[in-house]
Amino acid sequence: MNAIDTAIRAAASSIALKGVTKSYDAAHQVIPPMDAEFRAGEFTVVLGPSGCGKSTLLQMIAGLERVSGGAIVIGGREVQNLEPKHRGCAMVFQNYALYPHMSVFDNVAYSLKVAGMPKPERIERVEAVARMLGLSELLARRPSQLSGGQRQRVAIGRAIVREPGVLLFDEPLSNLDAQLRHDMRLELADLHRRIGATTAFVTHDQVEAMTLADRILILNKGRIEQFDTPKAIYHRPASVFVAKFIGSPPMNVLPVTGDGSVLRLADGQVVVEAPLNGNFVLGIRPEDIVFGTGGPLKARLRYREDLGSHSVLAADLAGEVVRVATPFGVDIAEATDLSLSFPQARLHLFDAATGRALPGAIGAQ
Amino acid sequence: MVENAHSLNIAASLVLLLGITYILGPLYLTFATASQSYEYLLRSGLAWIPGDQLFNNIARIFTETRIPLQMLNSLLVALSQAVATCALSFLAAYAIVGFRARWAGVVFALILATIMLPLDIRVITTYQVASNVLAPVNWLLDATGLNGVIGEVFGAPLHLEWSVLNTHFGFIAPLVAHGTGTFLFCQFFRTLPADLFKAARMDGAGPVRFMFDILLPLARTPFAALFVLTFLSGWTQYLWPLVASSTPDMQTAVVGLARLSPDTDGAVPDFPLIMAGALIVSIIPLAMIALLQRYLVRGLVLSEK
Ligand SMILES: Nc1ncnc2c1ncn2[C@@H]1O[C@H](COP(=O)(O)OP(=O)(O)O)[C@@H](O)[C@H]1O
Ligand SMILES: [Mg+2]
Fold it and tell me: Could you tell me the pTM of the whole model?
């Protein structure tokens, strides 16, 4: 155990957003009033499509953007009017933003130097961080002499060297190739396990979110769609937006109508018995659809994708495309009729007008 | 195809040869003339072949003319101008690009517009300003009626006078504001990732610290390029030092060189002496280019490795 690990674990603070809003111009609000709490020591992933305000949210926490309203409380202190350096946050940027003219050592040490830490202490700290991140051999190099993954590690080192209470990441893996992204994901998870810093991690990649997060905050146009554990988000999506955003392939959603006794698809096929009236959206995950057992729903196969571990069939059902995940090697030709069944326990029902989940109405919720 | 390329090669070589002759021809004539005596020139006109009087002529530059002193003037003026221009352009560009100032776009456009107003076309107004820098204050005092009050209280209206003509400061100041330099730095700053500034803020560095620790070292090449360019233009500047200086001791070398030809009509100028002077005066900018030429190219291309 390094001293720095324990120091960061001790410093880990919670972040509370209280009615935080942001607008860059009077015309539209990027973030409508938002309340949320990022618990101390937790790894919270902020997930959403690009342009939904994730970076804006993170930069407001960091102090790089001013809030337009509301309060941000970090470790019990209101910080929304403080300069970044007084908030105890550190940040890792998407393109690393290392200082190109400085050595790795100087990059990592820069914040300590600005803070006026004496040189011997500075060297000790940087070397401890370098050992932790496997950078010891690289301290004399320039950023331009490093690989993408190494630069990433330097950026992380620069962030943790100050022993921050909060670590902020803005899409730090999106510039890496697939293999490296996978490796860095493991490294990040490992790092978090060791130092236990409160972490806010922004991404648009649901795999990163599902694998790294203690809890995921799903953002849509600046609004919180759902804020829960990866498991809950996968199994109990709170809205159609979340259902369609999570999972690969994502959940199938179909418009259905209830006549008081059954729910019917647009073409009249009955999906499930339910005493409901009105318009709804029905959701079912591709891997939950049972296929090839002479089920009641008639669909037509459009095309199939063989992924090695499994195949994904895309079928027309009542004018919508439904994806079905099947074990690999199912022998079936394209453009043939399929019969499917939707197990009731696996169904998700959403309000057609609001898109919110209707827990307890049928099936899974 | 091969034949084509071959004839293309020959054509290209011919063009290059022509270009070299065009550039080196006058230089050769300068050198040849500088190495002949005045009498030889009077006898045979243009000097096509070098003579043996080069060192003699150079010695005469040092003993008979004020060129050495004037070169010191030039050095002072060109260096100060280069330093001041670089500093001002750098700061202006930082203000425009580094901060979300509301009028940054307008200011940038106005600065660019000054490129179309070189000193040569505003030399008369510049002369007026330089002859009394405080003239606007006088005007303001008159216009606001304040001078009437002052006249009543102190007995005479206030009239301030401060001429910078015939001073080194007067040679430098009007040329320091540099639209091209500001543009150069603006374009360079725009190539830097925006997150760099944010990263520095997270590290606790304010705008001034960021400028010294990060921006300045990164801007080394455009700095050197602009420095060389403004130094050269300051050294070879003719019109403004000619107009603004009134004593030979204050003149710059280029002006002094031109003054070596006699004002009297009909006399044949001492061309060997003048050309020897030209050679000496060119040495400093030549050395400058030789030393810093790699920055010149890299800085203008704006790609930092
Ligand atoms: N500095 C800015 N000025 C004006 N609008 C901005 C600025 N930064 C971001 N925006 C707008 O705010 C919205 C959210 O941006 P951002 O937080 O960067 O999204 P994300 O990180 O989720 O992709 C976008 O519509 C973007 O155009
Ligand atoms: Mg972003």
Answer: 0.82
